[in-house]
Amino acid sequence: MGTMSKFRAAVVGLGYWGPNLARNFQASEDFELVALCDLDAKRVEKVAASYPWAKRFTSTEEMLREAKPEIVAVCTPVASHYPLVKSALEAGAHVLCEKPLASSVKEAEDLVTLAEKRERRLFVDHTFTYVGAVRLIRDLYAKGTLGDLFYIDSVRINLGLFQPDVDVIWDLAPHDLSIVSHVVGKKVTSVQATASSHNPRGFADVAYLDLRFDSGVTAHLHLSWLSPVKVRKMIFSGTKSSVIYDDIEMSEKVKVYDHGVSFDVSDFETRKQVLVNYRRGEMRAPALDNKEALGVELRELARALRGEQATVATGEDGLDIVRVLEASQTSLQRDGARVTL
Predict the structure, then answer these.
(1) Of 21, 90, 106, 189, which sees the most CB atoms within 10 A?
(2) Is 107 within 8 Å of 50 (Cβ atoms)?
């Protein structure tokens, strides 16, 4: 493929997220939006009005056969990810799938295996890992600015949006799991989940996940669809400094606190006490790269498709997250017992 030729892209599912991807594919120098597909013909018409050259479909099979896209973005409810991603891979297309990748570990493993077999790239849309704020935190941690991480605390709560096919953990946790994995660069080794349900369907609508990573870092996620206020806040607490990432904050999304705690145990045996040293310094709010995450993501995907160095979330990354989600379900069934991955 020549450097300047564009990849033919199609978007399946034009509800909440699909139109954002369509817009970014069209604005990208690397892709050409060739097809739009949704079961609801009215939705297709509405979105396609902005892209009259893109072919319109209400059947994925028909779209894959007639438009012959090279990459398909799947932005549909979780239950339909497996059949749609599978048919796109089998038709010879690369796939960008909205998270979570599938509704079970078995399905996610099948898709990863199929992509390898077909020699197609399977990407998962972990959008937050392309956000300037998250990349900055990852760089601060990698450079040692935070020191060793004590823990990560995350709150992602709001009123609604109740999903038709998944509980609050499957809906909201993938965001935080992708951010934390991206920053720490490690896998979750065990999870403990507690949740409660206040709706007629019995789906968990408030949940708490306690995660351990293979670096010894722990993370705690608080997820809710029932909060009267919207909160999107994460705390990365380290020995040298700590970071607060507030996604709702307009100007200072990331604040770095030059505060730290160290423990002097040199005299522990004789005095049986630990001397705690607190250090309080400045707070700074670094300038952030404000590029739209989806635009950055598509640039990286194009690089990956051309065989260049790229930072992308792969099918394996998506599978890791589905493993944590499934382990959380198991933990809930066992009344909050810790489940090892």
Answers:
(1) 21
(2) no
Distance of CA 176 to the CA centre of its chain: 7
**Can you tell me the distance from the alpha carbon of 321 to that of 334, in angstroms, rounded to the nearest whole number?**
20
Residue 264 has pLDDT above 90, yes or no: no
Q: What is the mean pLDDT of residues 263-287?
A: 82
Among the residues of 251-311, which ranges form H helices? 268-271, 293-305
| pLDDT per residue as tens digits for the range 24-83 | 999 999 999 999 999 999 999 999 999 999 999 999 999 999 999 999 999 999 999 999
274 close to 257: Cβ distance less than 8 angstroms: no
- Pick from 28, 41, 131: nearest CA to 73: 28
End-to-end CA distance of the chain: 40
Which residues are 314's β-sheet partners? 123
Architecture of the domain made up of 7-125: 3-Layer(aba) Sandwich (3.40)
Q: What mean pLDDT is reported for the chain?
A: 95
Is-contact 63 35, C-beta < 8 A?
yes
Tokens of 336: 């909050």
* pLDDT at residue 1 in the model: 44
In the chain, CATH 3.40.50.720 sits at 7-125
Calpha distance 18→268 (Å, rounded): 59
**Topology, domain 129-293+322-340:** Dihydrodipicolinate Reductase; domain 2 (3.30.360)
Tokens of 185: 């660069």
Which pLDDT tens digit goes with each residue over 179-216?
999 999 999 999 999 999 999 989 999 999 999 999 88
Instruction: CATH 3.30.360.10 in the chain: give the residue spans.
Output: 129-293+322-340
Of 201, 200, 199, 249, the C-alpha closest to 225 is 199
Give the phi and the psi of residue 40 in degrees, each rounded to 5: -90, 110
d(CA 27, CA 102): 28
Q: DSSP readout, 138-161?
A: HHHHHHTTT-SEEEEEEEEEEE--
CA distance 127 to 220: 21
Strand 55-57 to strand 31-37: parallel, antiparallel, or no bridges (unpaired)?
parallel
Looking at residue 3, its pLDDT comes to 53
